[in-house]
Write a structure and sequence with these properties.
The chain has 151 residues and is an alpha+beta fold. Helix content is 19%, strand content 36%.
């Protein structure tokens, strides 16, 4: 009998703590007229189909090697994009440094300064893979094709 009363009490506490009568909506958009950015739409669609490719106009900002490769770009609205890999060999966004310029901070890599600030049409996929070496598996944006736009 004590177990039934205890379980009932715990159940009651759980229900009260969840606050099922809350009037506050959860995960809502504050302005329904607000347009969802194209990249968010692309990512959510890509989660459904890993074979789909996406294309976007982006400006090259930086390359950094940290826990993984980070190819950073900026779109026309000022949003930043972080790609985990570049499978295209058309442009070298990452440049290997000489031994004397290498350090633990840069791990021997830097951005190609000649490409920084230039605009590109980037084709990419979203693939499930390790997010970094020996890291968890997640969705990673991978550049598959690059075309430079004329100034």
């Amino acid at each position: 009998m004590k177990n039934i009363i205890f379980c009932s009490y715990i159940s009651f506490l759980i229900l009260v703590s969840c606050n099922f009568n809350s009037k506050e909506p959860v995960n809502t958009i504050s302005d329904p007229e607000e347009e969802i950015p194209k990249y968010a739409e692309n990512i959510s669609r890509a989660l459904e189909s890993e074979n789909e490719t996406f294309t976007i106009k982006l400006k090259f900002v930086d390359y950094e090697l940290g826990d993984a490769s980070h190819y950073t770009f900026e779109d026309e609205s000022g949003e930043y994009w972080d790609f985990g890999e570049c499978e295209s060999s058309d442009f070298e966004f990452a440049i290997g440094l000489s031994e004397e310029d290498s350090s633990t901070d840069n791990q021997g890599w830097t951005s190609n300064k000649d490409l920084q600030g230039k605009w590109f049409v980037i084709t990419y996929i979203i693939r499930e893979q390790e997010e970094y070496i020996d890291g968890p598996v997640g969705k990673v944006q991978i550049i598959t094709d690059v075309v430079m736009l004329e100034d």
